[in-house]
């Protein structure tokens, strides 16, 4: 029974450590915490310790591993909720400036780069775009931006 308890302690500790470094929302850490508690209980009882000592040790290990899991959850959810700051998804919602435009599309300056752009299909009020007008990026299709004219409230940031 002692060997099983020690094995569960080692496996549980490894699972909680993996969860702390690679957050999987408790898929490894939850069973790892349970394995730690059960392993402590079995190891202490197998070594001849009292049931009270075994329960205290099991609950202590469950509390520590549960705290590590809670911290992992909090950090994982915080990272998931952050806004994208790199890559093409970052351009969505950005304000840009029209450089040149004809009826179907043109060139716009967004985030310091010149992009090929076309009107957004969801634009209900097709108004004429001219050089110097402000636009908002709605979608990215390859290297072509789908844009619409910026409204006044969007320009005040």
- Low-pLDDT stretches are none
Going by helix content, strand content and strand pairing, the class is alpha+beta
Main pleated sheet: 5 strands, mixed, barrel
How far is it from the N-terminal to the C-terminal residue, by CA? Answer: 66 Å
Account of the protein in words:
This protein is an alpha+beta fold. It contains 4 helices and 5 strands, in the order H-H-H-E-E-E-E-E-H. It has 2 domains: 2-81; 88-155, OB fold (Dihydrolipoamide Acetyltransferase, E2P) (Beta Barrel). The chain has helices spanning 2-21, 29-46, 51-81, 152-155, and strands at residues 95-101, 105-110, 113-119, 134-141, 144-149. Helix 1 (2-21) packs antiparallel against helix 2 (29-46) and helix 2 (29-46) packs antiparallel against helix 3. 23% of the residues are buried.
Would you spell out the secondary-structure blueprint of this structure?
Elements: H1 2-21, H2 29-46, H3 51-81, E1 95-101, E2 105-110, E3 113-119, E4 134-141, E5 144-149, H4 152-155
Parallel strand pairs: 3-5
Antiparallel strand pairs: 1-2, 1-4, 2-3, 4-5
């Amino acid at each position: 029974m002692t060997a099983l308890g020690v094995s569960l302690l080692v496996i549980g500790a490894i699972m909680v450590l993996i969860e702390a470094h690679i957050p999987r929302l408790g898929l490894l850490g939850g069973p790892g915490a349970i394995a730690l508690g059960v392993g402590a209980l079995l190891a202490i009882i197998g070594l001849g310790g009292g049931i009270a000592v075994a329960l205290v040790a099991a609950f202590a290990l469950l509390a520590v591993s549960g705290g590590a899991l809670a911290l992992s959850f909090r950090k994982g959810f915080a990272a998931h909720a952050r806004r994208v700051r790199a890559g093409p998804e970052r351009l969505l919602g950005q304000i840009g400036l029209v450089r040149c435009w004809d009826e179907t599309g043109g060139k716009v300056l967004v985030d310091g780069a010149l992009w090929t752009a076309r009107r957004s299909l969801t634009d209900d009020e097709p108004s004429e775009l001219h050089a110097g007008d402000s636009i908002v990026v709605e979608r990215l299709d390859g290297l072509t931006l789908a844009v619409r004219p910026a409204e006044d409230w969007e320009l005040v940031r």
